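Listing S7. Sequence submitted for prediction.
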Amino acid sequence: MRIKTWHKAAIGAVLAGGMAGAAFAHHSFAAEFDRDKPIKLQGEVVKFEWVNPHSWIHIKTGDGKVWRVEGGAPSALLRRGWNRNSLPAGTKIIVQAFQARDGDTRASAAEISFPGGRSLSLGNPTTEAVIAAQKRAGE
């Protein structure tokens, strides 16, 4: 009987630890990014990371800095027509985003646009909600 109880406790501890790690990895927008610090980034894609829980676009701007821009999960991007090869290195893009609170070269964006005017959603629902709220407040 004690062995069964011990096994249940051990399994519970492992599951709780795993969930805590997932909760930590998936942050809230407000904890990491500042809705009062919008930024426009223009440059070339260095790398596009197709990873969970958020995709990341690495952009080299004109001043030589490399910014990491958070997008939506790959599943959200797939629903919007993206695939892992949608942003090859060297692609010129423009990103309207929100800067990281800690001053790092990280940002969160809802969409990107291209010099020709075409734009694509980054499938980032939280950032999309922040932009929609700002538009409503400005009306």
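Caption to Listing S7: primary sequence and predicted structure tokens for the chain studied. Strands lie at 33-49, 56-61, 66-70, 92-100, 106-113, 119-121. The helical segments are 2-25, 29-32, 74-79, 125-138.
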